[in-house]
């Protein structure tokens, strides 16, 4: 609890800004705890995520059916030339990757696919992703 003294206009303005920055949120301590964990544990390792994104992009770009954009953050965007593969579209690619425990975003409404490197992904995981894509050239039809 807190108290505030001033004119009604001042108090109204203070209430407005308190709510604007989340001061009216119930259980704000839970949100604050997540922020603290993020600042202490996740933020310091963001460069590692960016390094993993660079590694993934570099390795995938070696594959003849991949067109990988150079990542600027922890996100890797790419398109796939399905004419060189035994699968036909992004939906089949997503199903294949998911069967390997790999999740990707996009591809259903666009040909551009996204993969996010994050604190749960290690360097060996990046190579598992690469190996899954390398195996695509010999993967049997999904139909």
Q: Can you give a write-up of this model?
A:
With 143 residues, the protein is of the alpha+beta class. Helix content is 46%, strand content 10%. The chain has helices spanning 8-20, 28-42, 46-61, 90-99, 123-134; strands at residues 66-68, 75-80, 105-106, 113-116. It has a 4-stranded antiparallel β-sheet with strand order 1-2-4-3. The protein starts with 7 loop residues before the first helix and ends in a 9-residue tail after the last helix. The mean pLDDT is 87.
Question: Which short descriptors sum up this protein?
Answer:
alpha+beta; 10% strand; single chain; 143 residues; elongated; 5 helices
Quick summary:
The chain is of the alpha+beta class and 143 residues long. It has 5 helices and 4 strands; from the N terminus they run H-H-H-E-E-H-E-E-H.
Strand arrangement, largest sheet?
Answer: 1-2-4-3
| Main sheet record | 4 strands, antiparallel
The helix content, as a percent range, equals 40-55%
Radius of gyration: 23 Å
Unreliable residue runs:
none
């Amino acid at each position: 609890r807190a108290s505030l003294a001033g004119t009604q206009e001042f108090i109204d303005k203070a209430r407005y800004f308190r709510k604007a920055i989340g001061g009216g949120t119930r259980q704000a301590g839970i949100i604050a705890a997540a922020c603290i964990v993020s600042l202490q544990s996740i933020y310091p390792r963001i460069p590692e995520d960016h390094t993993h994104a660079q590694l993934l992009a570099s390795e995938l770009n070696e594959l003849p059916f991949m067109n990988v954009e150079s990542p600027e953050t922890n996100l890797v965007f790419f398109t796939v030339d399905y004419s060189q593969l035994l699968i036909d579209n992004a939906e089949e690619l997503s199903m294949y990757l998911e069967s390997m425990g790999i999740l990707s975003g996009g591809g259903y409404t666009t040909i551009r696919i996204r993969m996010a490197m994050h604190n749960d992904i290690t360097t060996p995981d990046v190579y598992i992703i690469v190996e899954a894509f390398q195996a695509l050239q010999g993967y049997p039809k999904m139909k």
